[in-house]
TrEMBL record, chain A:
This is AP-3 complex subunit beta. It is a peripheral membrane protein. Residues 658-676 have a biased composition (Acidic residues). It comes from Gouania willdenowi. Keywords: Cytoplasmic vesicle, Golgi apparatus, Membrane, Phosphoprotein, Protein transport, Transport. GO terms for cellular component: AP-3 adaptor complex; clathrin-coated vesicle membrane; Golgi apparatus.
Automatic annotation (TrEMBL), chain B:
Signal peptide: none annotated. It is a peripheral membrane protein. GO terms for biological process: intracellular protein transport; vesicle-mediated transport. Its main location: membrane. Belongs to the adaptor complexes medium subunit family. Keywords: Cytoplasmic vesicle, Golgi apparatus, Membrane, Protein transport, Transport. InterPro entries: Adaptor_comp_med_subunit, AP2_Mu_C_sf, AP_mu_sigma_su, Clathrin_mu, Clathrin_mu_CS, Longin-like_dom_sf, MHD. SUPFAM superfamilies: Second domain of Mu2 adaptin subunit (ap50) of ap2 adaptor (SSF49447), SNARE-like (SSF64356). This is AP-3 complex subunit mu-2. Coiled coil: none annotated. It holds the Pfam family Adap_comp_sub. The lineage of its organism: Eukaryota, Metazoa, Chordata, Craniata, Vertebrata. It is found in: Cytoplasmic vesicle membrane; Golgi apparatus.
């Protein structure tokens, strides 16, 4: 029929084939016949062919290629629906060969006139990505472009694509953040869910915790920071001001709580739960309670989430307590979840109503539910002391219930409760002892036996009797009960050996020949422990302490207790296990990242007119108005203390471009906090600098022409105070030239004597080096008094390798083996080059000598200044002036061989950057690239 | 997102499958069947099942399980809500959503699913957009199609898809312009043994059937809008206007839709329309039990209580019931132990009652649980919360529409504990 030239017949044939596919029957034999019809004029036939093609193309790759040209033609059709569906099918055919065609089609469609086609393009991105992850970079470009799209139709789909392809590229969102917030309400509902979830994650990385000042709330991350305390205090005093963008998000999502789509409501609820200040979270309760009227599957998911929320924010749902009351018609799983919520909500004021409710539940016909209710009562009783006795009495009454499951469950719960206050309840224990004749459920029997054993002193008469009965039935019991019988026997033997000695022996003998090795083991162990023999060691003296130690009462807690580390509403949260592709919800940052990244150049930017402040109010201390100075020598520069910034800026070429200026200016207000921090850091730096300066001054001969170290020096540990018996040694690469030998790297050592006695004759001995390496020792330090510190400089020629220099550090009493391993960045010293020289040198170091790497800059390292600082911290290089503000160049040469090392960081949009290192020594080059990458991305 | 969809009927057969990405073998459903076996009741199957490689999310509607296969993290509600939307769409298209209806229209179902999801992500779920893409099958249309050879599938992109009002298509024309609104309220309540109310709330909806030409802009205002403090809207309602003036302003979709649903939770606003006097006892030692039930109207504001249906799940020990209704009929299913009593209208002069004895299984001890009584009822011409529509205005079009509003109260989950 497919070969017929009548459309009606073809249609009929296709319908039958599709019906086959639907039933799961294999129809792949017909592939060639069907594919022919892909160009059919009749649109319904065409669509059915598409359905067929998508289903079987993967299996018949070669034949599927025949249809590609039709789609390519379809992509140029004037009808947008046809363009879109051609793209849809093309991208749904999972044939690897056509990846380039798909890529091209997606790129083209991404700039299509019709938003519908653009939407389809966004849908096609994850398809292509799953087919060929290699295309990621190109796809990210397309995503970036589509993210900038202003139509609501596209927004949802492209965020979906973003989440599947590159959820880690949060930097792509910055510029679109405000637009997404404002469009949100008009986006179709499925898109809303995805966008809200993504924005939750985004906000967690970009804004401060709104509940920070209230302390508590479990948000301890902030206090765990290892920053010194006074800084914490300072921050706490500062009132928290919510970022206007944060507020914008909360404001724009709130109306969506009224959506008819449960998924949207849930998404907003989790957003509020994770992001909103405590006072505002309450609004979601009402909406969530409303969802409880929906289908039972929806109820199930919502209740799971409510259960988690009630643990953290109980007050939120308290007014809605009654909405969680259970109806006899609810499915069991819903009942149990509601019970969980009710238990979580219980407190002193409402416990009586809740317990009354529970009483009715116990009479339910659904036994699983009754068992859960009994456990819930147990939990209420442990959590709320006032009602413990009432609960206990109620549970004891249940012991006379006819249903065995109910009784067993109550026994287990009573056992837990009794452990909290055993003294008062010996009559209950007696009552339970009587029950042993009737109850058959092993768990319950075991619980009773344990109770009697534990509190045998309260029931001295009954306990041996119970043991007697149990000994009789020992062989017929379950394993768990047997263990408890042995346990009971042992405890009784210790407290009341007169009456029970024989019984215990008997039980232990029975256990000795049990089938279960656990029980045999236990019996052997207990026999050794309690029965005094001539050989019995010291342990048996403590037997009583071992067995009759006070046991802490068990804590009954909710299974939902720790679930809130998963993003609420997610699959992972529901399963309490990480599902594939789950994105962790990051912790709040300690300080807000630069909010100006969200500024959009266009004037219509919605929020915050106060954002951009005029340039002239810009604090002048940030840029020292130094002329484009190029050479600074460490000793001649009087104001080293002005910190790293002045240095790096002064090396900057003539006039910093305007755009940069304004960009930086916009951060000024919000950044005060950060600035303060920075100042602190600077102060620290200054101290260090002064220290190193003073050291430098003590050696006036170091007037060597170098470029000042542009950042704080990193200290490494050579000898820990504990291994060094009070002597601790730290070293740093001072980046000064080592005067006695220019080929050596200067290592500054800082000795501290923490011991109580003086250390004498500090010197180096027994230097073990790789061939070619040399060491120039420091002069022997004759005396280091207790509590004092001193520094010394030694020189090491590492031969341009990162091999460690091993030697012994000797005092008058001890020798310590130590080693110094240089980071590759310290094996070079800065040289000054002009831009032209740099380019010339670079052009000679191409090919094998050039290593380049793409990277994404760390969020805090987007501006030029930060890049310069990070690079110069990581490697002893100097900045090369350069005309373009997109590139930072650095130059240096290796200490020993003097080969040039050139590094270039070219920044692109959105934090992408390229790092290029040119070096004759390829090993050094590769290692340097690694180190710099690390420095720039972290 | 959604990888595949399987439709499973009550007897456990997969009768339809659709894959949006690579094909997932049917055998993945075995995990689902396992869970199904473990659950005693069909509705006790957990909605989310985790298997080694996939996650199964299922919903049960009309005795058909819709099982979606997921491979990675996705909000479960997203999938559940979508599956329900699929069922709603089927119902919209075929009138009913049964296995037979789906099997008969398997091609349309396939076309619909193809349009609703692209690569597992929802594409078009708005019913009027779908209806333009794929026309619902009617007998008339099938005949016309066979004669003229035209198809069921639209050739143009639905206009709604691109407009700011995606829920409405352009160029709607009617000869009779009419707009009907139904205010339907359901009472959810739990009444305890002694007849006092434990919880009571009202779930209300306003369903609309709007058949108006062109692009009308409607506003609906209420006499007492303050009642509505917990509402959810159809996307067409302008939320800002509601916040500011408490007026519903919207461009309606074409045809039937749910304009708004609301929730009145404060108990004192909820009137309980009926009371139940009951006396259900089992005597210790004898194999007989007494059953005595009387219904009477309570706060009904003079309106008649109609279509009353009482049902109760009697304890497992009950063998049979020998009862005598003063009106209506009763049935007792000895297998499921479900007692239903179709009362009909309650006459305040002569209260309906159901009296008699129950026989217990010989030797069985007295059941210690008491059955709960579920009641269904209807009250016409009244919204029990007292919500009243003030007026409906139309802007943007010249003609005068025919307007109508209807109120109705029903019992939702109305339970009496005994």
């Amino acid at each position: 029929m497919l070969d017929s030239n009548k459309d009606a017949l073809k249609l009929e044939a296709m319908k039958r084939i599709v019906a086959m596919i639907a039933r799961g029957k294999n129809a792949s034999d017909l592939f060639p016949a069907v594919v022919k019809n892909v160009a059919c004029k009749n649109i319904e036939v065409k669509k059915l062919v598409y359905v067929y093609l998508v289903r079987y193309a993967e299996e018949q790759q070669d034949l599927a290629l025949l249809s590609i040209s039709t789609f390519q033609r379809g992509l140029k059709d004037p009808n947008q629906l046809i363009r879109a569906s051609a793209l849809r099918v093309l991208s749904s055919i999972r044939v690897t060969i056509i990846v380039p065609i798909m890529m091209l089609a997606i790129k083209e469609a991404a700039s299509d006139m019709s938003p519908y086609v653009r939407k389809t393009a966004a849908h096609a991105i994850p398809k292509l990505y799953s087919l060929d992850p290699e295309q990621k970079d190109q796809l990210i470009e397309v995503i970036e472009k589509l993210l900038a799209d202003k139509t609501t139709l596209v927004a949802g789909s492209v965020v979906m694509a973003f989440e599947e392809v590159c959820p880690e590229r949060i930097d792509l969102i910055h510029k679109n953040y405000r637009k997404l917030c404002n469009l949100l309400i008009d986006v179709e509902e499925w898109g809303q869910v995805v966008i809200i979830n993504m924005l939750t994650r985004y906000a967690r990385t970009q804004f401060l915790n709104p509940n920070i000042n209230e302390g508590g709330g479990g948000d301890k991350t902030f206090y765990c920071s290892d920053e010194d305390e006074d800084e914490d205090e300072e921050k706490e005093k500062k009132p928290y001001v919510m970022d206007p963008d944060h507020r914008l998000l909360l404001r724009n999502t709130k109306p969506l709580l009224q959506s008819r789509n449960a998924a949207v409501v849930m998404a907003v609820a989790q957003l509020y739960f994770h992001l909103a200040p405590k006072a505002e979270v309450g609004v979601i309760a009402k909406a969530l309670v409303r969802l409880l009227r929906s289908h039972s599957e929806v109820q199930f998911v919502v209740l799971q989430n409510v259960a988690t929320m009630t643990i953290k924010r109980r007050g939120m749902f308290e007014p809605y307590l009654k909405s969680f009351y259970i109806r006899s018609t609810d499915p069991t799983q819903i009942k149990i979840l509601k019970l969980e919520v009710l238990t979580n909500l219980a407190n002193e004021t409402n416990i009586s109503t809740i317990l009354r409710e529970f009483q009715t539940y116990i009479k339910s016909m659904d036994k699983d539910f009754v068992a859960a209710t009994i456990q819930a009562i147990g939990r209420c009783a442990t959590n709320i002391g006032e009602v413990r006795d009432t609960c206990l009495n109620g549970l004891v009454q249940l012991l006379s219930n006819r249903d065995e499951l109910v009784v067993a469950e109550s026994v287990v719960v009573i056992k837990k409760l009794l452990q909290m206050q055993p003294e008062k309840h010996s009559d209950i224990i007696k009552h339970m002892a009587k029950l042993t004749d009737n109850i058959q459920v092993p768990m319950a029997r075991a619980s009773i036996l344990w109770l009697i054993g534990e509190y045998c002193e309260h029931v001295p008469k009954i306990a041996p009797d119970v043991l007697r009965k149990m000994a009789k039935s020992f062989t017929n019991e379950e394993d768990i009960v047997k263990l408890q019988i042995i346990n009971l026997a042992a405890k009784l033997y210790l407290t009341n050996s007169k009456q029970t000695k024989l019984l215990t022996q008997y039980v232990l003998n029975l256990a000795k020949y049990d089938q279960n090795y656990d029980i045999r083991d236990r019996a052997r162990f207990i026999r050794q422990l309690i029965v005094p023999t001539e050989k019995s060691g010291a342990l048996s003296k403590y037997a009583k302490k071992l067995f009759l130690a006070l046991k802490p009462a068990p804590v009954l807690e909710s299974p939902f207790k720790d679930r809130d580390h998963f993003q609420l509403g997610s699959l992972s949260h529901l399963l309490n296990a990480k599902a594939g592709g789950y994105q962790e919800l990051p912790d709040w940052p300690e300080s807000a990242p630069d909010p100006s990244v969200r500024n959009v150049e266009v004037k219509e930017s919605v929020c915050g007119p106060a954002r951009v402040c005029p340039v002239n109010t810009f604090p002048t201390n940030r840029h020292s108005s130094a002329p484009p100075l190029i050479l600074i020598s460490a000793s001649s520069e009087p104001d080293t203390g002005s910190g790293s910034e002045s240095v790096s800026v002064s090396v900057e070429s003539g006039s910093p471009s305007d755009s940069e200026e304004s960009e930086e200016s916009s951060e000024s207000d919000e950044d005060e906090e950060e600035e303060e921090k920075e100042k602190k850091k600077k102060k620290k730096e200054i101290k260090q600098m002064q220290a190193s300066e003073s050291r430098a001054r003590s050696k006036p001969d170091v007037s060597f022409q170098t470029i000042a170290p542009s950042s704080a020096l990193k200290n490494y540990e050579l000898l820990h105070r504990i291994t060094g018996e009070g002597l601790s040694v730290e070293y740093c690469f001072s980046r000064q030239a080592f005067s006695p030998d220019a080929n050596m790297v200067a290592v500054q050592m800082h000795f501290t004597n923490n011991a109580t006695s003086d250390t004498k004759n500090l010197h180096i001995e027994d230097v073990k080096l790789q061939s070619g390496m040399r060491v120039k020792e420091f002069a022997e330090i004759e005396l280091l008094p207790a509590g004092e510190a001193t520094t010394a400089v030694m020189g090491v020629d590492f031969c341009d390798s990162t091999q460690a220099a091993n030697f012994q550090l000797c005092t008058h009493t001890r020798k310590f083996f130590v080693s110094i391993q240089p980071p590759v960045g310290e094996l070079m010293r800065p040289v000054f080059l002009t831009e032209n020289e740099f380019k010339k040198e670079q052009s000679q170091l191409m090919g094998m000598n050039e290593i380049s790497e793409n990277l994404t800059l760390d969020a805090k390292c987007r501006n030029e200044h930060a890049i310069v600082q990070r690079v110069t911290t990581a490697a002893n290089l100097s900045r090369v002036p350069c005309g373009s503000d997109k590139e930072c160049r650095f130059a240096g040469k290796t200490v020993t061989s003097g080969s040039l090392v050139l590094a270039t960081v070219a920044t692109k949009d959105e934090g992408a950057a390229q790092l290029t290192v040119n070096c004759e020594k390829m090993v050094i080059g590769t290692m340097l690239v690694k180190d710099l990458l690390l420095a720039l991305t972290q | 997102m959604i990888h595949s969809l399987f439709l499973v009927n009550a007897s456990g057969d997969i009768f339809l499958e659709k894959h949006w990405k690579s094909v997932v073998s049917r055998s993945v459903c075995d995990y689902f069947f396992e869970a199904q076996e473990r659950a005693t009741e069909p509705e006790n199957v957990p909605p989310v099942i985790s298997t080694p490689h996939h996650y199964l999310i299922s919903v049960l509607r009309h005795r058909i399980y819709f099982v979606a296969v997921i491979q990675s993290e996705v909000p479960p509600l997203f999938v559940i809500e979508f599956l329900h939307r699929v069922v709603d769409t089927f119902q919209d298209y075929f009138g009913v959503c049964t296995e037979a209806a789906i099997k008969d229209n398997v091609v349309v179902v396939y076309e619909l699913l193809e349009e609703m999801l692209d690569n597992g992500f929802p594409l078009a779920t708005e019913s009027n957009i779908l209806k333009e893409l794929i026309k619902p099958p009617t007998i008339l249309r099938t005949m016309v199609n066979t004669i003229t050879g035209s198809t069921n599938v639209g050739e143009q992109l639905p206009t709604g898809q691109l407009s700011v009002v995606p829920w409405r298509r352009t160029g709607v024309k009617y000869t009779n312009n009419e707009a009907y609104f139904d205010v339907v309220e359901e009472i959810d309540a739990i009444i305890d043994k002694s007849g006092s109310t434990i919880t009571a709330e009202i779930q209300g909806v306003i369903d609309a059937c709007v058949k108006l030409t062109g692009m009308p802009d409607l506003t609906l205002s209420f006499m007492n809008p303050r009642l509505l403090d917990d509402v959810s809207f159809h996307p067409c309602v302008r939320f800002k206007r509601w916040e500011a003036e408490r007026i519903l302003s919207f461009i309606p979709p074409d045809g039937n839709f749910r304009l708004l649903s609301y929730h009145v939770s404060s108990q004192n606003l909820v009137a309980i329309p009926v009371y139940v006097k009951h006396n259900i006892t089992f005597r210790e030692g004898s194999s007989q039990g007494r059953f005595d039930l009387t219904l009477g109207p309570k706060q009904t504001m003079g309106k008649a209580v109609e279509a009353v249906l009482v049902s109760s799940q009697l304890p497992r020990g009950v063998l049979n019931a020998n009862l005598n209704p003063s009106q209506g009929t009763y049935t007792f299913d000895p297998v499921t132990k479900l007692l239903t009593w179709d009362v009909g209208k309650i006459n305040p002069q002569k209260l309906p009652s159901l009296k008699g004895t129950m026989s217990l299984q010989a030797g069985a001890s007295k059941p210690d649980e008491n059955p709960t009584i579920n009641i269904q009822l209807k009250i016409q011409q009244m919204a029990i919360s007292g919500l009243k529509v003030n007026r409906l205005d139309m802007y943007g079009e010249k003609y005068k529409p025919f307007k109508g509003i209807k109120y109705m109260t029903k019992a939702g989950k109305f339970q009496v504990r005994t």
